[in-house]
Specification:
By secondary structure, the protein is an alpha/beta fold. The chain folds into 3 domains: 18-211, P-loop containing nucleotide triphosphate hydrolases (Rossmann fold, 3-Layer(aba) Sandwich), CATH 3.40.50; 215-295, Orthogonal Bundle (Helicase, Ruva Protein, domain 3), CATH 1.10.8; 297-371, Winged helix-like DNA-binding domain superfamily/Winged helix DNA-binding domain (Arc Repressor Mutant, subunit A), CATH 1.10.10.10. It has 15 helices and 9 strands. The strands form 3 sheets. A 5-stranded parallel β-sheet has the order 2-5-6-1-7, with helices on both faces. Helix 12 packs across helix 14 (330-342). Bound molecules: adenosine-5'-diphosphate and magnesium ion.
Length: 371
């Protein structure tokens, strides 16, 4: 089996580091404190939540829901009901109690044709019905003997719901629960900060914050080395450093590159193997990169290439950066950077002491540098 996972979580053997973060989350859960976790996309939030849940599994009930696909409070409610149903399946006594508890909400159970997973929908549509059914779902959980942890992934999605006062409604419900702790996680740090850190908003002051940064380089070096070694692949320090240089230690891109190296069945990995495999990966994505070029304006494209060339841009409005790449006036550059950030092509990393701009997709960055 390939030791470098690209999706999901399996067990601690496939999971690198995050000791500190795991410890903090477990401590918060133990003390019934809620935590908001944020980081750039694909850095490992979901895997961290799954890891913590894996460690908790025997002691507590864990409920995970990713609300990225939802676009209304009604859908949120259905997702929550489905997540509870999965934790408490109907063939167990708690599952039967849950079913009894929500009978009046007229649940309909379907099996998703694509994923084969169960999906619960509640036959309710009036806003007042939805507002009443949410507390009912939570109150069922609150009555259970075992402590419960709920992780809501991509939580910033609630800001796009058309219903009014969603934050206030959720905050009020959550405040009155005694047996449940929450982890809210999200990739859009600007929106997450808006929810949790604006003094005027309902969630203000109610949660601990955690910013997930890159995995420390030394940790990743030994993880890659050991993972390769466990499946009979050897390499040397220079190659390990090279891998992490190429991916900027970004979790997903590092996993992806190592995954492909293993898949190529090389027994001793050399620098030229890494280059070849990266080149192959980039080629597979080239059609998408050309699409980007068609979708962006000429000056946006130029800005993107400039950021890629620099890898990290700390002072985008400095004359030296603007002159070096002929990026026009400060206001044009401001507009272009904003457009690229809004499209999630460029990431503005604000969670470090010295904020900077970088290309989100590290393989795109390498491709742009070679164009
Ligand atoms: N600590 C880790 N060790 C090994 N692989 C990880 C780790 N964290 C994340 N991954 C892998 O990196 C990829 C992106 O992680 P994910 O949790 O989906 O990021 P996010 O939720 O922040 O977008 C996934 O393929 C996941 O399996
Ligand atoms: Mg995620």
């Amino acid at each position: 089996m390939n030791p470098f996972l690209l999706y999901n979580y399996l067990d601690p053997d496939y999971f690198c580091d995050r000791h500190k973060e795991t410890e903090i989350l477990l401590k918060n859960i133990n003390n019934k404190n809620n935590t908001a976790v944020f980081s750039q996309r694909r850095l490992g939030k979901t895997a961290l939540l799954k890891h913590v849940f894996y460690l908790l599994k025997k002691k507590q009930s864990t409920i995970y829901l990713d609300i990225f696909p939802t676009s209304s409070l009604k859908e949120f409610t259905d997702y929550l009901a489905t997540a509870i149903y999965k934790e408490f399946p109907i063939h167990k006594s708690t599952g039967r109690k849950f079913w009894e508890h929500i009978k009046l909400l007229r649940p309909i159970l379907k099996i998703n044709g694509l994923s084969g997973e169960p999906e619960l929908t509640l036959d309710i549509s009036q806003p007042e019905q939805i507002e009443k059914s949410l507390p009912q779902l939570f109150s069922f959980l609150d009555q259970q003997e075992k402590k419960i942890v709920i992780a809501i992934d991509e939580f910033q999605q609630i800001l796009s719901y058309p219903e009014k006062n969603v934050e206030a409604l959720l905050r009020t419900i959550i405040q009155n629960l005694h047996n449940i702790s929450f982890i809210f996680s999200g990739s859009d740090s600007r929106l997450m900060i808006e929810i949790f850190n604006s003094a005027k908003r309902p969630f203000y002051g109610s949660t601990n914050f955690m910013t997930l940064n890159k995995i420390p380089r030394e940790e990743y070096v030994s993880f890659i080395k050991n993972s390769f070694h466990s499946v009979g692949v050897e390499t040397d320090e220079k190659v390990l450093e090279m891998i992490l240089d190429l991916t900027c230690t970004h979790t997903y891109y590092t996993q992806r590159l190592c995954h492909e190296i293993y898949a190529d069945r090389i027994s001793y990995v050399k620098e030229k193997d890494v280059v070849n495999i990266l080149y192959k990966l980039i080629q597979q994505n080239e059609a998408v990169y050309f699409q980007y070029r068609n979708l962006l304006t000429k000056t946006q494209w130029k800005t993107l290439k400039a950021v890629a060339a620099e890898e990290a841009v700390y002072q985008p409005y400095s004359q030296s950066f603007i002159k070096k790449y002929s990026l026009g006036t400060v206001s044009t550059l401001q507009r272009n950077l904003k457009a690229l950030v809004d499209k999630a092509i460029i990431y503005n990393n604000l969670s470090v002491e010295d904020p900077y701009y970088e290309v989100e997709d590290k393989f795109l960055m390498r491709w742009l540098q070679n164009e």
